[in-house]
Amino acid sequence: MRLYPFLLVFSVFLVDQITKILVTREIVFGSEVRVLPFLSLIFVKNFGGLFGLMNRPSSNTVFTVFPAAVCLFLTFLLLRAGSRAIRLSLSFVLGGALGNIWDRLTRGFVVDFLDLHASSFHWPAFNVADLSITLGVCLLCYFSFIRGEGWMKN
Fold it and tell me: What does pTM read for this prediction?
């Protein structure tokens, strides 16, 4: 097992945290900075799960404990992964998950700041960690189901 998957996990985590620090310092909570006609930067506090599901402070424990257990399982899978492609995919998922868990532990909520929109439709706000998790899951599906990569070492 090489070190690169854990370097990628740390890199994803670091980029996620740096962007969140910049957002909390530079953007007033609830305000919008339009970047492109379809993309704005906003500062949103997400106490809930994916896409703001159960978005209330009392749900924070649920969305910290369960993902922490999943991170332990992902680490186990990463250590046992059968191919580089699967390790790459799992690294993106793990790095993103750790970024959001860190937010919950240190801030009590996850900082979301990317707002995709078209006219009056707005996709729920998200962050670099969410992008990383989504990319990792898509890569896992591709490498597993399309290319038939093995998940575990023989």
Answer: 0.86
For 110, the 3-state DSSP assignment is strand
pLDDT 10s digits, 95-147? 999 999 999 999 989 999 999 999 888 888 999 999 999 999 999 999 988 87
Q: Is 112 a known active-site residue? A: yes
**Structure tokens, 52:** 């703001």
**CA distances (Å), origin 89, targets 111, 115, 136:** 23, 25, 4
Sequence ranges of the domains in the chain: 4-25+34-59+66-146
Active site residue 130: yes
Point out which residues pair with 115 in neighbouring strands. Answer: 40
Kindly report, residue by residue over 47-76, the tens digit of the pLDDT. Answer: 876 655 555 555 556 667 788 888 999 989
Catalytic residue among 16, 103, 115, 130: 130
User: 16, 103, 112, 115: which one is catalytic?
Assistant: 112
Backbone angles phi, psi at 61, to 5 degrees: -60, -45
Q: How far apart are CA 138 and CA 40, in angstroms?
A: 24
| Torsional sign, CA 18, 19, 25, 26 | positive
Q: Which residues pair with 44 in a beta bridge?
A: 112
